[in-house]
Specification:
The chain has one domain: Spore Coat Polysaccharide Biosynthesis Protein SpsA, Chain A (Alpha-Beta Complex). Strands 3-2-1-4-7-6-8 form a 7-stranded mixed beta sheet. The chain has a two-stranded antiparallel ribbon with strand order 5-9. By secondary structure, the chain is of the alpha/beta class. Helix 2 links the parallel strand 2 and strand 3. The chain starts with a strand and ends with a helix. Helix 6 crosses helix 12. The longest helix is centred in the C-terminal third of the chain and has 21 residues.
């Protein structure tokens, strides 16, 4: 029997077409040595999309759907205080924080955002040597050239920008994450501090997992960036923030996306979405980016941001909890 690699996604109906591209690329390029359980964590996904995405079940992979609403009773966008990403905020961005608790049968797994394509072999990511680290991830190269975000990671999250990871691609040490109780620790901090943040899930993961991260090569989270040369052979491309080929032209790695998109049932949906994306919507995207930058500047100065709370000893990161438990 082949070893099973669990790969987790979190979506709503809006991102179903993109997820089809991700699934198609994963299955087409993954090694035959493994079997892939493709687990879709969702918030009221339509039957039509479940049927379409479910067709990627094959002799190499199985698609499973898991509803998450009951996990988030009492949590809402207003409760989160999140007015920072109005373009894309849904509760699905928090689902990755509970994967370890929800799937105790796995000691290791992969979480990937849906706005990706995978021209490489996903099993090679799974095989990376995590050791006792909680997660494996790539630095968020997309913010290196944005001074307010560079300052934000240091002053608000308490992580140097070169060590601040992008949470859209995670190799998860699920056994260790259960030991340190990531999900519970997140909920405790949420209820106690209501931290304001620019990238809510990403900031919590960076703050809590600091110094327990295995850093992956950029080929596993290559992002379109006009300030950087594209990688010649990326293993995974992440169309982060507003650099999305189904929104605009001349996005780095767009050929890879459309290569796989053409092979899905959603190709017409994706092309229609792009053709009908208006200049007003693009202006909204630009305004949202400006809002994120302004909020980053403000949060970096707050007296009770993540960094100041942790460094003052008023609360603790995950590794401090481990030291106490095993003392």
């Amino acid at each position: 029997m082949k070893k099973v690699i669990p790969v987790f996604f979190a979506i709503d109906d809006q991102y179903a077409p993109c997820l089809a591209v991700a699934l198609h690329s994963i299955i087409e390029n993954a090694s035959d040595k493994y079997f892939y359980r493709l687990i879709i964590l969702h918030q009221q996904l339509s039957k039509k999309n479940m049927t379409r995405l479910g067709r990627y079940t094959c002799d190499k992979a199985r698609v499973d759907f898991v509803r998450m609403e009951e996990r988030f009773e009492g949590i809402s966008a207003s409760r989160m205080g999140d007015n920072l990403r109005p373009d894309c905020f849904t509760l699905t961005i928090y689902y990755r924080l509970f994967i370890a608790d929800m799937f105790p049968e796995y000691n290791r797994g992969i979480y990937i955002d849906s706005d990706i394509c995978v021209p490489g072999d996903i099993s090679k990511l799974y095989e990376k040597p995590l050791g006792d680290n909680l997660i494996g991830a790539c630095p968020d190269f997309s913010i290196f050239d944005v001074p307010p975000f560079v300052n934000y990671t240091k002053e608000a999250v308490g992580v140097d920008v070169h060590r601040y990871i992008n949470s859209g691609v995670l190799l998860l040490n699920l056994k260790r994450l259960r030991e340190v109780q990531l999900g519970s620790r997140f909920m405790q901090l949420l209820n106690k501090w209501h931290f304001d943040s620019v990238a809510p899930d990403q900031d919590y993961i960076n703050a809590l997992c600091k110094d327990q991260i295995y850093y992956l090569g950029e080929e596993w989270d290559a992002m379109p960036d006009e300030n950087r040369q594209p990688m010649p052979n990326p293993c995974l491309v992440h169309y982060n923030r507003f650099e999305k080929p189904w929104i605009k032209d001349d996005v780095q790695y767009e050929d890879l996306f459309w290569e796989y998109a053409r092979k899905t049932e959603y190709y017409a949906d994706l092309t229609n979405f792009k053709n009908n994306y208006t200049e007003a919507q693009r202006q909204t995207d630009r305004s949202n980016l400006e809002l994120m930058i302004a909020r980053a500047v403000a949060i970096a100065k707050e007296p009770d941001n993540m960094r100041r709370v942790f460094e003052s000893g008023r609360d603790y990161r995950l590794q401090h909890q481990v030291l106490v438990e095993y003392a």
